[in-house]
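lol ok so funny story. i was supposed to be doing the assay writeup but got distracted and ended up predicting the structure for this chain instead. priorities right. anyway since i did it might as well share w the group, maybe its usefull for someone
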Amino acid sequence: MPKKNTGQTGAKAASAAGKTLNSANATKAEKSAAGSALSQVPNSTGQTSAKAASAAGKTLANPKATKAEKSAAASALAQTPTRPKKK
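and the output, tada:
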C-alpha cells in the first residue's frame, strides 16, 4: 500500500494553479493538474490521484505550457502518494 504523502501546496503554487484554472488557453490536462494542486492546500487531506499525476506529467512535458501551469503541475506531482520500491 502506498505511503501517505503529507506535502501540501504552498501559496505561490496555489496562486499559479488558480491562474491556470482561469486561463482560456490551458488544456484539460493542465487544468486537471491545477485542480489537484488546489485540492491540497493547507488544512486539506487530499492527495494527487494517478489520473491527475498523469495529467501533471503531460503538462510538464508540454513545451507550450506556461510557467504558472508547470508550477501547478509540479506541485500536484509533489503530492502523489509514495510507492514502495520494486525489488
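The chain has one domain: 11-78. The radius of gyration is 12 Å.
back to the writeup now i swear
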